[in-house]
């Protein structure tokens, strides 16, 4: 029987047979933590009696969540990670060079086609865009990988997601993954893998694909995998930090379920409070007045996201009631946005441009919401209290919807902007 | 992990996420007691003041979805929660709970029928949940053999410690 991409990658990393439901001991290619998840991982690493990480070039700490340090406690936490990274001579990048981990690591060629990657952060599934089995784990699991280079995985059944049709101009990868969430819900792929297919992916930019893999975890999935194509291989070859072997699913792979989504008929979407699966057309909420817009995060802080925001904000002003935070997800994105003049567009529009950080996405800093405030955010979660007060509300959207809403001061379908011109 | 468990049930619905179990604003420490003070406060203010040591959390489907923060099961332990019973668990929370030694039990029937305040006892070695208030008994879904072995060894930390010591002797 043919293997899915998830099975094929697991089998290539294990002596065990990758039959669905089997628990396989796997070799891990890359393992990382952030400033929040590193300290408990370090504690577990010591408790395990480990002395050296299995390979200092394959283990990393990225200070991206509460950094630049937002208070004394987070400064202490960041210091703990920094000291451990120095002691172990493992990969570490300081504020000013690091980015939001799931944007930064693919850029630097540390997550590659055919890899098994484990990160102590749930959005590690973002790496699935490159054809890697990349999955989030807790700190103790991560410590075990640092200590031994191995972990265990239960081989997941796979849902094949087919995106049909030609993608309309205003539809982004974010809308596509929101449509999937609306269809299968926040536990539709629990314990499973997603494998993305369909003609709508052909001309879908890589940055949009990252948004899709990124929110795989919001469906409960272990991994959200793209099959390597020319676009993915070119990107990986240009940036690879080491050699890699792309892996492909078999033609006769067995999928547990097939989910089909017609992209051609889609309209710009939002996920309304308080679940990422509470998905509706943006225009249904055009009466909802907002207080804040956040454009950034590991979901939508890449160059194309910033470019889309700039395309809307060029020559326009942020609504007087609205605070608009724009946070490029890495310094590569930040400098390129600067070179292309996007930052100037944002500054002229009256947006706040911040240094790369996860920041407001998880209610960390740089844009916390007060009671009753409403925010349109390009991030990935709108749970109760996620971005601040428990009585605040978060609507998740693409950068196009977010930027358009920043201008009008209410939730806005970006096509409305075109009509205004 | 095979100690008998007994406590009052606190019931929650489906899709209880790790942001409400322990909000990110408290993730500036990994101290069990400190995290325990803020457990569930965004969904049930004052929760930790109402509960007694040994009480039981009962959730619906997809319990612990969202972020990978191990601080979530740690917060339950710190608050004195003895175990979580749910219809199903999100995968990272599931792994984390086993790894840090918070007993969890998959039992859709019990999760559906237990009412807040019921007195629940669990015998982990037999895999039985008893609702003492309503005189009902349930069987939990058994874990795969590898996970049972992991739990019997004392969790992932102990398991890896043994592996490292063994390797040293080779």
How would you sum up this structure, described in words?
The complex is a heterodimer of chains A (421) and B (170). Chain A has 14 helices and 18 strands. Chain A has helices at 5-12, 38-47, 72-88, 101-107, 139-148, 173-184, 206-214, 230-239, 297-300, 303-313, 331-339, 342-349, 399-408, 415-420, and strands at residues 23-27, 30-34, 59-62, 91-92, 116-119, 133-136, 150-154, 158-164, 193-197, 223-226, 257-262, 269-271, 279-281, 292-296, 323-327, 352-353, 374-377, 393-397. Chain A is globular, with a radius of gyration of 20 Å. The model of chain A has no long low-confidence stretch (mean pLDDT 97). Chain B is an alpha/beta fold and 170 residues long. Chain B has one domain: Aconitase, domain 4 (Alpha-Beta Barrel). Chain B has helices at residues 18-21, 32-36, 47-50, 71-79, 91-100, 108-113, 145-153, 156-169; strands at residues 5-11, 56-59, 83-86, 104-106, 119-123, 128-131, 136-139. The longest helix of chain B is centred in the last third of the chain and has 14 residues, at 156-169.
């Amino acid at each position: 029987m043919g293997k899915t991409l998830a099975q094929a990658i697991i089998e290539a990393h294990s002596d065990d047979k990758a039959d669905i439901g089997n628990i396989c001991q796997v070799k891990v290619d890359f393992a990382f933590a952030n400033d929040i998840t590193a300290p408990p991982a370090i504690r577990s690493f010591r408790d395990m009696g480990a002395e050296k990480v299995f390979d200092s070039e394959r283990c990393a700490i990225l200070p991206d969540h509460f950094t630049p340090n937002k208070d004394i406690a987070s400064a202490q936490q960041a210091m703990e990670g920094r000291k451990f990274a120095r002691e172990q001579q493992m990969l570490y990048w300081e504020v000013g060079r690091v980015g939001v981990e799931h944007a930064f690591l693919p850029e630097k060629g540390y997550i590659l086609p055919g890899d098994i990657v484990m990160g102590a952060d749930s959005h590690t599934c973002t790496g699935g865009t490159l054809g890697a089995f990349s999955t989030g784990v807790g700190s103790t699991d991560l410590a075990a990988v640092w200590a031994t280079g191995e972990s265990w995985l239960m081989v997941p059944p796979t849902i094949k997601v087919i995106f049909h049709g030609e993608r309309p101009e205003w539809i982004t990868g974010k809308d596509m993954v929101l449509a999937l969430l609306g269809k299968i819900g926040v536990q539709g792929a629990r314990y499973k893998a997603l494998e993305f297919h369909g003609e709508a992916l052909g001309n879908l930019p890589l940055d949009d694909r990252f948004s899709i893999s990124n929110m795989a975890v919001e469906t409960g999935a272990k991994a959200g995998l793209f099959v390597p194509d020319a676009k993915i291989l070119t990107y990986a070859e240009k940036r690879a930090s080491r050699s890699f072997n792309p892996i492909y699913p078999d033609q006769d792979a067995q999928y547990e379920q097939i989910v089909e989504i017609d992209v051609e008929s889609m309209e710009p979407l939002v996920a309304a409070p308080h679940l990422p699966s509470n998905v509706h057309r943006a225009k249904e909420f055009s009466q909802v007045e907002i207080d804040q817009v956040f454009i950034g995060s590991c979901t939508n802080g890449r160059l194309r996201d910033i470019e889309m925001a700039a395309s809307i904000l060029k020559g326009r002003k942020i609504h007087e009631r609205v605070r608009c935070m724009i946070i490029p997800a890495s310094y590569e994105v930040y400098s390129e946005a600067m070179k292309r003049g996007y930052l100037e567009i944002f500054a002229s529009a009256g947006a706040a441009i911040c240094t790369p950080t996860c920041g407001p996405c998880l209610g960390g800093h740089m844009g916390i919401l007060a009671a009753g405030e409403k925010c349109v955010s390009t991030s990935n979660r709108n749970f109760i209290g996620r971005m601040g007060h428990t009585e605040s509300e978060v609507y998740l959207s693409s950068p196009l919807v977010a930027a358009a809403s920043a201008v009008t001061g209410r939730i806005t379908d970006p096509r409305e902007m075109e009509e205004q011109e | 992990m095979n100690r008998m468990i007994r406590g009052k049930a606190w019931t929650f619905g489906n899709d209880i996420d790790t942001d409400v179990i322990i909000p990110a604003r408290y993730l500036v420490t990994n101290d069990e007691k400190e995290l325990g003070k803020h457990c569930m406060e965004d969904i049930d203010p004052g929760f930790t003041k109402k509960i007694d040591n040994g009480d039981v959390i009962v959730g619906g489907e997809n319990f612990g979805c969202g972020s990978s923060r191990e601080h979530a099961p740690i917060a339950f332990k710190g608050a004195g929660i003895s175990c979580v019973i749910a219809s199903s668990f999100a995968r990272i929370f599931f792994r984390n709970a086993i790894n840090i030694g918070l007993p969890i039990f998959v039992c859709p029937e019990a999760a559906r029928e237990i009412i807040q305040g019921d007195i629940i006892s669990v015998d982990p070695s037999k895999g039985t949940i008893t609702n003492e208030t309503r005189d009902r008994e349930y069987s939990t879904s058994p874990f795969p053999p590898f996970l049972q072995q992991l739990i019997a060894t004392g969790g992932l930390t102990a398991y890896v410690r043994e592996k490292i010591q063994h390797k040293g002797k080779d």
